[in-house]
Give the backbone structure.
Amino acid sequence: MPPVIDLKTCNSCQKCDRFCPGDIIHMEPSQEGKRKVPVVAYPEECTHCGICRLECPENCVSYQFPPMML
């Protein structure tokens, strides 16, 4: 499962985009166009390394693994 980003708590710091080693997360304009928000652009390529979650200062990145993966 790819990372899940809570856009309500995201402050658009872009750390998840900068530190993602697989270049999976990209910053794109929000729907209202006022700021850039992170988007998981290539979810099938995510290796679940967790760097985006560790670097996020607002703790808005999480992983939701299905029980069979735990």
Remarks:
- The first strand starts at residue 4 and ends at 5.
- The beta strands are 4-5, 25-29, 36-40, 61-62.
